């Protein structure tokens, strides 16, 4: 697959699949599931639209499906995917810096992760384990996270304004609109 | 021997495991094993789908998918022992979607509206029972689905309809904001009414 398939508009679809150290699967799962309570570390990466961590225990094999031979994973794997703004290198630079404490807890439990689990070494590790997209779909791939958030804020304000300004005369309406939204 | 069943975490009213949810956003993660002919076929399908926007038109119209991806995994990068250095016997397809709504409704819509697209994307996967009837297809997705351990959305309370509407309104309100102070009050009031009429479907 080509790395061009990871891009849709200005959005990038990153995926890394790393083998988990045998015996550390349970504590990694516990750590990842516990991140909900403390707030997502992905919040520290303002270019991230959506991301996930998934532990894959094995491939599914069903004898009734006609697959001639079963196939199993040698180890359990951690999948990290992110849908973010812009290009990969600078995103991973940010991730490897601001998420260093969490990265130690997450990829530090994976086979081959550098001891520091931070900086250029972690970036190289994640890129080494990158899986390119075959097809990446983004419903609003032209819009960045700040643009989406600003548009949503403005939408809320316009709805509130439409309600609160009902019954105002032209002059008062104009004044209220300029006071609320400014005039460029 | 089969893989362990998908993690049975708390399940929401819509049938979605709770770790797959952040606000309105829901994650679905599915692995499937691909038949030999999927290996040459899928890259062609992906390339064609990307180059012909009409083919993704239905996805756009469905308006409940934020981001989705399909990846074909032929080999896993090697990181040293205890990982085994080996070539996978079969290619495997990874699918993820970030959507809003319920799991059941999502699969229903996929089956009924994207019937031919589903056959194209999953037809080369072992066990794919066709998109319709929807019952067997739901069971197929359930056994191949893996629950996320952590899922994040930067704007968890927003649906696609809200986001697309907000981005659409952005363009419509810009001229009004630009000219508001230069207009006479009556002209502004008329322009504001026109804006509301044009933007009401997006608000």
Written description of the protein model:
The complex is a heterodimer of chains A (184) and B (203). Chain A has helices spanning 25-38, 88-98, 100-106, 119-128, 145-164, 170-181, and strands spanning 7-8, 11-19, 48-56, 77-85, 135-138. By secondary structure, chain A is of the alpha+beta class. Chain A has 2 domains: 3-128, Alpha-Beta Plaits (2-Layer Sandwich), CATH 3.30.70; 145-181. Chain A has a 4-stranded antiparallel β-sheet with strand order 1-2-4-3, covered by helices on one side. In chain A, helix 2 (88-98) crosses helix 4. The longest helix of chain A has 20 residues, at 145-164. The model of chain A has no long low-confidence stretch (mean pLDDT 95). A 4-stranded antiparallel β-sheet of chain B has the order 1-2-4-3, covered by helices on one side. With 203 residues, chain B is an alpha+beta fold. In chain B, 37% of the residues are buried. Chain B contains 7 helices and 5 strands; from the N terminus they run E-E-H-H-E-E-H-H-H-E-H-H. Chain B has 2 domains: 18-144, Alpha-Beta Plaits; 160-199. At the A-B interface, strand 2, helix 1, strand 3, strand 4 and strand 5 of A face strand 2, helix 1, helix 2, strand 3 and strand 4 of B. Strand 5 (135-138) of chain A pairs antiparallel with strand 3 of chain B, so a sheet runs across the interface.
What is shown here, in short?
The complex is a heterodimer of chains A (184) and B (203). Chain A is an alpha+beta fold and 184 residues long.
As a whole number of angstroms, the C-alpha radius of gyration of chain A is 22 Å
Oligomer: heterodimer
Percent in helix of chain A: 40-55%
Number of helices of chain A: 6
Q: List low-confidence stretches of chain A.
A: none
CATH architecture of the largest domain in chain A: 2-Layer Sandwich
Order of helices and strands of chain A: EEHEEHHHEHH
> Which word captures the global form of chain B?
elongated
Unreliable stretches covering 5 or more consecutive residues of chain B = 1-10
CATH topology of the largest domain in chain A: Alpha-Beta Plaits
Assign the CATH class of the largest domain in chain A.
Answer: Alpha Beta
**Which band does the percent of strand residues of chain B land in?**
15-25%
| Total separate domains of chain B | 2
């Amino acid at each position: 697959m080509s790395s061009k398939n990871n891009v849709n508009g200005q959005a990038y679809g990153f995926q890394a699949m790393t083998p988990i150290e045998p015996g550390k699967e349970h504590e990694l799962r516990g750590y990842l599931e516990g991140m909900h309570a403390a707030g997502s570390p992905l919040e520290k990466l303002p270019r991230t639209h959506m991301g996930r961590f998934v532990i894959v225990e094995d491939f599914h094999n069903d004898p009734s499906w006609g697959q001639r031979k079963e196939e199993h994973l040698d180890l359990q794997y951690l999948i990290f995917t992110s849908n973010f703004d812009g290009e990969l290198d600078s995103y991973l630079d940010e991730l490897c810096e601001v998420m260093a404490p969490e990265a130690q807890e997450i990829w530090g439990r994976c086979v081959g992760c550098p001891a520091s689990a931070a900086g250029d070494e972690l970036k190289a590790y994640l890129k080494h384990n990158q899986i390119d997209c075959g097809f990446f779909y983004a419903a609003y791939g032209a819009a960045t996270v700040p643009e989406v958030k600003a548009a949503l804020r403005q939408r809320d304000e316009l709805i509130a304004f439409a309600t609160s300004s009902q019954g105002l005369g032209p002059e008062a309406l104009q004044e209220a609109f300029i006071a609320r939204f400014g005039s460029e | 021997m089969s893989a362990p069943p998908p993690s049975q975490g708390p399940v929401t009213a819509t049938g979605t495991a709770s770790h797959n949810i952040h606000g309105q956003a829901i994650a679905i993660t599915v692995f499937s094993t691909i038949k030999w002919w999927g290996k040459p076929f899928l890259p062609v399908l992906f390339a064609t789908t990307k180059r012909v926007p009409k083919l993704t038109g239905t996805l756009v119209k469905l308006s409940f998918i934020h981001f989705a991806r399909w990846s074909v995994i032929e080999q896993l990068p090697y990181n040293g022992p205890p990982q085994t250095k080996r070539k996978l016997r079969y290619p495997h397809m990874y699918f993820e979607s970030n959507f809003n709504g319920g799991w059941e409704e999502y699969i229903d819509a996929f089956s009924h509206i994207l019937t031919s697209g589903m056959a194209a994307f999953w037809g080369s996967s072992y066990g794919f029972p066709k998109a319709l009837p929807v019952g067997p297809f739901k069971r197929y997705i359930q056994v191949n689905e893996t629950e996320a351990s952590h899922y994040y959305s930067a704007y968890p309370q927003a649906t696609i309809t809200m986001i697309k509407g907000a981005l659409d309104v952005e363009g419509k309100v810009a001229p009004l904001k630009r000219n508001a102070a230069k207009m006479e009050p009556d002209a502004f009031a008329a322009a504001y009414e026109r804006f509301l009429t044009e933007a009401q479907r997006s608000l």
